Structure formats: structure tokens, C-alpha cells
């Protein structure tokens, strides 16, 4: 017998081509699954002993051996070998080298197919918890900034044209809301992935009297995959995660875009600290908002990873195919990217300095209280369409003489509609406009403060 590989070489006569070995190996990137692989193996061995497939002594040797291997890996003392293809066979081979025969029994009643499907679920479950902690940290930072700036006025835009005055705190709370839904999506994804494939074995289940419920209990899985073919082969949970991650990144990217615009000399609404910016090697005046730019840029790779995973899965017949090995890099890359982007945002948001005067003065440009004047006329009895027309004419007049509506005098305003009285100026001021939107979800500062209070309670 030509033993080309100690795990599966029995029926082979030729050794694997050297380059094919490297081409097919996943150990370069799947070694980060090692702690989860070991966790899964310890649970599996515990169950095997309980059903009589391992002796107490064999189980102890296996568990001690796996714990030693985990320590070696953590201390970077583990000798990873490409000859052993992946994380699973590297660990198993080391175990056998350490403890001999007992080690060879660990793989009883399982396959690398259900093993890897379990590992990535354990991995992602833990990562999801860390990601949600980072989202929460960012949300707290947003709440603090929103609280501080609840009465700060900046122009709200539609079509990137000045539309109506809004509270900067209200603007920050919009991102808080997006992140709340993002967290919900991830929690939802966690619920569905928390199902254990182990026991599916290669594809059809196993002939051994295993107790799947026990292994699931040991690993903290809420359920067991109902169908072995499905358990080993689907990666829909990863696709769900990548979709939810893409949405988080889309939100962070929109936020980034605003921070980039706002920190330009043209907007000049905020200042990011030097510690979050870089300079230019040629233009001495520059201070570049690298952090939000990078986050905006990294959104592309997260979207790409989602597309990659969907495409990897789309034509695979049941059950496991080697294609599935390609699931890991998009998944790991997305987890890392998401974690680092959330982390850097949670660190950066508390450092954002609102340039209140600039925001205020900018809001004065662009006739942002025109809607308020229309609403005022409606309250005086004019149908809204007619009021819209009247205000349109007064804006055209203001543009001609280069004055804001609030800078026109009463006589000028009355020239457009005789119903206009002195109280109109309460409406035309930015503060008046802001405070008038005084309902749940509106931008009036007291509503914003209420929203922050509610949000803080919900976050606990
Ligand atoms: N490295 C493999 C992967 O990541 C493990 C499963 C291999 N299974 C097999 N039948 N070749 O998918």
C-alpha cells in the first residue's frame, strides 16, 4: 500500500502533485478555526465516551492532548503543515503523534464535512457576539454626541440641496436607528445558525449510536440540523451574515461620506482630530479624513464577499463539494473588516467636534425655512398649493436681492400675501422652524432628547 496521506491515502497509488497539494490546501487560512475545531472535538469525544465508543481513559487522553495542542497553537509553537491540507487534519495528526491509538479514534462517527460546518458556525456565533458589542459601543458614542448636540442646527438636505433645518443630534440619531436594525439582523442571523451539523457525518449520517443532542448541549447549540445533507452542505447562515454585514457597511459608508463632506473646507461643519487624519506628502495644507474614507472603501470588499459566497453556492449539487472550502476567506475577511470598521468608528465618533457656528450660518443659506412660511400661510387659510406658489415667488425675490426670507421686512413679505403678520418671524427663524417639528420622530430638540432617553433605556 502506498501511503500518500495518512488520513485518506489508503486507496491511492500516486502521491498528490506538489502544486495540487498547495492548491487544494486550506490550512493557510482555516487555521484560525483551530479553537473551534478543538472545542467541537472535545464535545464529540465526551459524547463518544458517554455512548461507550471511547473508554474514560481514551477520552481523557484525547481531551488533554487537544488542550495541549490549543496551547501550542496559541503560543505559536504549532508546526502547521501544508501536507496535512487543513486545520482539521493538522490537529488530528498532531493528536495521534502525541497520544497514539486513542487519537485515531476521535474521528469515529464524524467527517470533516460535518466538522467544518460545525466549526464555522461556532466561529461565527462567537464573532457575532463581538460584533454586536462593537455596534453597541458605537451606538453609545452616537447617543452621547446626539445629546451634546441636540440643539445644534445644521441644514438638512434632500438631493444634497439645503432643505430644512435639522438638529445635529437628530442627524446622529438617524444613524443610531440604522445600527439598531443592523444589530437586530445579526441577532436574527445568530438564531438561525445556532443549529448543529455534527452527526451528519460525510452526508448521510452515521451508523454509530451517537447522541447528537448531547454534543449539541455541550456546544451550546439550540438545535440540531434536521437533515444530514443540508447540515453539511448549506452555507445560507454565512450568506445571511454577509448580507447583514453588507447592510452595516452600507450604513457606515453613508456616515463616512457625510463625515468626509463635512470636514471639507467647503462644508466645514466638523473637525476630526489629527489623530484620526493624515497629511499629504506634497500639499502641506491637507488634513485628510482617511478613517471614514477607508471605511467607505472597505464597503466594496464586504459587498464583494457577499457576491462571492452567493456565487460559490449557486450551482452546487448536494451535498458537500470542495467548492465549499472557498466559503472561508470571504467570511473571515468580512468578520475582520466589520469588526475593525465598527471599532474605529466607535473610537472616532466621540472625537467629532461640531462646528456649531458654521453649521448655523450654512443653514441660513438656501431658504431652509421656506416650507415653514408655506405652513404659516396654510394656517392663515391659504390652500397648500397656493401657499407653495406664494413662497416660491418670495424665494425668487430673495434670490434677486440676495436676502434670506427671515431678512425680508414685513412690508416686503406682505407684498406676496396680505395675510402675513409680524408673528411670521417666529416661523422664519431657524430655531422656530426646528422647534415647530415637535412630534415623535421630529427634529425639535426636546423630541430629540426624548428619543435619546428612550434609546438609552432600550440599549440596556
Ligand atoms: N478543508 C475542507 C473545507 O474547508 C474541510 C472539509 C473537507 N472535506 C472533504 N470531503 N474533502 O471545506
TrEMBL record:
Tell me the CDD domains matching this sequence.
Argininosuccinate_lyase
Q: Which GO terms describe its cellular component?
A: cytosol
Under catalytic activity, the entry for this protein gives: 2-(N(omega)-L-arginino)succinate = fumarate + L-arginine
Q: Where in the cell is it found?
A: Cytoplasm
What stretch or stretches form a coiled coil here? 121-148
| Presence of the UniProt keyword Lyase in the record | yes
**Sequence ranges assigned to domain Argininosuccinate lyase C-terminal in this UniProt record:** 367-434
Q: Cite the annotated pathway.
A: Amino-acid biosynthesis; L-arginine biosynthesis; L-arginine from L-ornithine and carbamoyl phosphate: step 3/3
Entry keywords, A to Z: Amino-acid biosynthesis, Arginine biosynthesis, Coiled coil, Cytoplasm, Lyase
* GO MF annotation terms: argininosuccinate lyase activity
Top-level taxon of the source organism: Bacteria
EC number(s) reported in the record: 4.3.2.1
Q: Which GO terms describe its biological process?
A: L-arginine biosynthetic process via ornithine
Task: Write down the PROSITE patterns for this protein, in alphabetical order.
Answer: FUMARATE_LYASES
Where is each Fumarate lyase N-terminal domain found? 10-304
Family membership noted in the UniProt record? Belongs to the lyase 1 family. Argininosuccinate lyase subfamily. In the N-terminal section; belongs to the lyase 1 family. Argininosuccinate lyase subfamily.
> Known NCBIfam families for this protein?
argH
Q: What is this protein's record name?
A: Argininosuccinate lyase
- Which organism was this protein described from? Bathymodiolus azoricus thioautotrophic gill symbiont
At the highest ranks, the source species' classification is: Bacteria, Pseudomonadati, Pseudomonadota, Gammaproteobacteria, sulfur-oxidizing symbionts
Amino acid at each position: 500500500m502506498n501511503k500518500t496521506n495518512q488520513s485518506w491515502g489508503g486507496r491511492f497509488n500516486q502521491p498528490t502533485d506538489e502544486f495540487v497539494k498547495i492548491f487544494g490546501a486550506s490550512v493557510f487560512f482555516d487555521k484560525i478555526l483551530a479553537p473551534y475545531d478543538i472545542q467541537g472535538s472535545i464535545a464529540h469525544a465526551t459524547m463518544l465516551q458517554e455512548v461507550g465508543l471511547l473508554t474514560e481513559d481514551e477520552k481523557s487522553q484525547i481531551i488533554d492532548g487537544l488542550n495541549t495542542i490549543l496551547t501550542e497553537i496559541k503560543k505559536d509553537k504549532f508546526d502547521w503543515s501544508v501536507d496535512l491540507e487543513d486545520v482539521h487534519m493538522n490537529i488530528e495528526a498532531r493528536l495521534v503523534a502525541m497520544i497514539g491509538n486513542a487519537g485515531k479514534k476521535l474521528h469515529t462517527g464524524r467527517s470533516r464535512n460535518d466538522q467544518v460546518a460545525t466549526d464555522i458556525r461556532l466561529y461565527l456565533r462567537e464573532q457575532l457576539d463581538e460584533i454586536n458589542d462593537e455596534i453597541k459601543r458605537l451606538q453609545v458614542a452616537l447617543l452621547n454626541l446626539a445629546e451634546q448636540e441636540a440643539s445644534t442646527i445644521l441644514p438638512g438636505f434632500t438631493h444634497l440641496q439645503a432643505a430644512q433645518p435639522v438638529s445635529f443630534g437628530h442627524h446622529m440619531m438617524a444613524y443610531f436607528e440604522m445600527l439598531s436594525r443592523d444589530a437586530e439582523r445579526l441577532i436574527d442571523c445568530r438564531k438561525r445558525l445556532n443549529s448543529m451539523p455534527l452527526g451528519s457525518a460525510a452526508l448521510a449520517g452515521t451508523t454509530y449510536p451517537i447522541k447528537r443532542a448531547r454534543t449539541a448541549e455541550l456546544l451550546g447549540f439550540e438545535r440540531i440540523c434536521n437533515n444530514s445533507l443540508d447540515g453539511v452542505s448549506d452555507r445560507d447562515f454565512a450568506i445571511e451574515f454577509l448580507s447583514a454585514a453588507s447592510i452595516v457597511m452600507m450604513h457606515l459608508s453613508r456616515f463616512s461620506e457625510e463625515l468626509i463632506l463635512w470636514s471639507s473646507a467647503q462644508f466645514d461643519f466638523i473637525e476630526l482630530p489629527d489623530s484620526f487624519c493624515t497629511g499629504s506628502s506634497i500639499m502641506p495644507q491637507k488634513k485628510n479624513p482617511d478613517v471614514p474614507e477607508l471605511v467607505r472603501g472597505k464597503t466594496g470588499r464586504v459587498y464583494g464577499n457577499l457576491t462571492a459566497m452567493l456565487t460559490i453556492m449557486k450551482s452546487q449539487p448536494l451535498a458537500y463539494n470542495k467548492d465549499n472550502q472557498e466559503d472561508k476567506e470571504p467570511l473571515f475577511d468580512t468578520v475582520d473588516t466589520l469588526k475593525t470598521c465598527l471599532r474605529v468608528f466607535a473610537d472616532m465618533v466621540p472625537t467629532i467636534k461640531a462646528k456649531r457656528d458654521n453649521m448655523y450660518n450654512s443653514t441660513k443659506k438656501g431658504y431652509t425655512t421656506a416650507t415653514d412660511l408655506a405652513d404659516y400661510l396654510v394656517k392663515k387659510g391659504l390652500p397648500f398649493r397656493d401657499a407653495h406658489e406664494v413662497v416660491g415667488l418670495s424665494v425668487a425675490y430673495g434670490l434677486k436681492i440676495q436676502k434670506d426670507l427671515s431678512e425680508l421686512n414685513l412690508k416686503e413679505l406682505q407684498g406676496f400675501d396680505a395675510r402675513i403678520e409680524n408673528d411670521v418671524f417666529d416661523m422664519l427663524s431657524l430655531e422656530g422652524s426646528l422647534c415647530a417639528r415637535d412630534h415623535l420622530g421630529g427634529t425639535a430638540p426636546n423630541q430629540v432628547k426624548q428619543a435619546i432617553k428612550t434609546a438609552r433605556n432600550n440599549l440596556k
